[in-house]
Write a structure and sequence with these properties.
Elements: E1 2-7, E2 10-12, E3 18-26, E4 30-39, E5 46-52, E6 57-59, E7 67-72, E8 77-82, E9 91-100, E10 106-110, E11 114-118
Parallel strand pairs: 2-11
Antiparallel strand pairs: 1-3, 3-8, 4-5, 4-9, 5-6, 7-8, 9-10, 9-11
């Protein structure tokens, strides 16, 4: 079983920063990619940022220049540094991992979600 544990969410003022962490644990052979999605009430769950184990990244246009995703392959942990936060960034943030549990078998795993609230 693969488990993703997220941390770092909370309440922050506009313009502030937060750093989200997501640690993958369990029977992991390797990780192809990890990423962050977010979902606000009444809205779809959308990709925020993703990163491959090789370091290739992809960002939603709305967060480019403000958020930075990184991965520590040795720790199976992905981070999302969130700067210049805006009220519209308020959402539940979910970690996602594309995990190989063997050389030939893989699946996607989701974290439980962590609330990020940007408000004065």
């Amino acid at each position: 079983q693969v488990e993703l544990v997220e941390s770092g969410g909370g309440l922050v003022q506009p313009g502030g920063s937060l750093r989200l962490s997501c640690a993958a644990s369990g029977s992991i052979f390797s990780i192809n990619a990890m990423g962050w999605y977010r979902q606000a009430p009444g809205k779809q769950r959308d990709l925020v940022a993703a990163i491959t184990s090789g370091g290739s990244t992809n960002y939603a246009d709305s967060v480019k220049g403000r958020f930075t995703i990184s991965i520590d392959n040795a720790k199976n942990t992905v981070y999302l540094q969130m700067n210049s936060l805006k009220p519209e960034d308020t959402a539940v943030y979910y970690c996602y991992a594309d995990v190989l549990v063997s050389a030939t078998m893989g699946f996607g795993s989701w974290g439980q979600g962590t609330q990020v609230t940007v408000s004065s």
